[in-house]
Amino acid sequence: MAQQKRNWVAIITMFFIFAMISFVTNMAAPFGNIWGMSYNWAGMAGNLMNFTAYLIMGIPAGNMLIKYGYKKTALIALIVGAIGLGVQLLSGIVSNIYVYLLGALICGFCVCMLNTVVNPMLNLLGGGGNTGNQLVQAGGTLNSLSGTATPILAGFLVGTLTKDSFPDVAPLIITGIIIFLAAFGIISFIKIEEPQGDLKNVTYEKSPIAFRHCLLGIIAIFFYVGVEIATPGMMNAWISHESWEGAAAVAGSLAGIYWFLMLVGRFTSTFISNWVSTRAQMITVSAVGIALIVAAIFTGDVTTTLNINLGFITIENAQVPLSCVFIFLCGLCTSVMWGGIFNLSTEGLGKYTAKASGLFMVMVFGGGMMPFFQDLVLVQQMGVSYLNSYWLIVGMLAYILFYSLVGCKNVNKDIKVD
């Protein structure tokens, strides 16, 4: 009974950290839009810096799990996050975009470490398999709730987007700093038992990429995070730069609906994962996601009037492209992909799980690289329309479908994992 209670303390703590990850990550796009009013390359630049941190910090974060354990790694990450938000706040005061980009990079170090902690820990606390995926999806529900609120709050605070809008979102940054420091204090006093014991003396005969399903899953994570961030992010940038009054607020609400639907999808997956396999869920959402984005691309000339009132998301008589509806509906599909890919890719890894988690965090760089490429290269440099740039997302979803059908099978069961 005592062990069960300790496990639930750890699980709830990881759920809270999941929410913090999304809070920090989803501030990058609306803040980038503000800087984009002065620098046309800046729309996704903060997002790029946020995810570049994964490229730098992924493997060290995995090693931190082995050396310091899950709790100490999380505490270090929370302090780093508070510092990163503080630097972003300073950038608005001194009006220097490079200070902002530094802050975004530091925040990226934070969320990289937090992600390295929360995903394997929830999966291991659930015992792997469908139950492990169930816990990851439950944590992802709170992640999506935070992701829903952040762009809406930013859009509400900004109102009409201008190059001088940064002071308007300062209260959101200050709130984030306070939450990080409070979380540090709370988690410091919580006893969290390490799910794999002491890993410092474990011998590793192979690398996690010796497992084919892990290697292909790492590539799938690179594409998935690109899809997750670019799908609402590019829509936010597109609608924010429309000339009609209140466009920025509507754009934030549309992005918020996407994240809300991710919440709905993860919440649903939490309940069905005991009966529907992770692989079956992944095949379904990958295929439907492709269909939705293709539909969005081919309905670009059609507009619709949106009247949506979800309490915390309100859109009244907004004339927006019908494509936006298909784009935010894709949130239902991307909702289960992170947990699903991580679950399938780490299945059967045993002692290699912590190292694999570090490698996964490196490839989360795709969340910065692919949206930045889509925005700066395809749209800004090559002149591709916002909607036609979504063919890149179709291609990434196609790989995820391939992984779900074929690549996720563990064909290396002969490697010793205990």
Can you describe this structure in just a few lines?
This protein has 418 residues and is mostly helical.
At the first level of CATH, the class is Mainly Alpha
Q: Per the principal axes of the C-alpha atoms, what is the gross shape?
A: globular
Strand content: under 5%
Number of helices: 16
Rg, Cα atoms, Å: 20 Å
Low-confidence stretches: 1-6
Would you give the CATH topology? Growth Hormone, Chain: A
Please describe the biggest sheet, giving its number of strands, its sense, and whether it closes into a barrel.
2 strands, antiparallel
Strand order of the largest sheet: 1-2
Residue-averaged pLDDT, rounded?
A: 81
Distance between the termini: 27 Å
Descriptive report:
- It is a single chain.
- This protein has one domain (2-190, 209-407): Growth Hormone, Chain: A (Up-down Bundle), CATH 1.20.1250.
- Helix content is 72%, strand content 4%.
- It is built from 16 helices and 2 strands.
- A two-stranded antiparallel sheet has the order 1-2.
- α1 (2-25) packs parallel to α6.
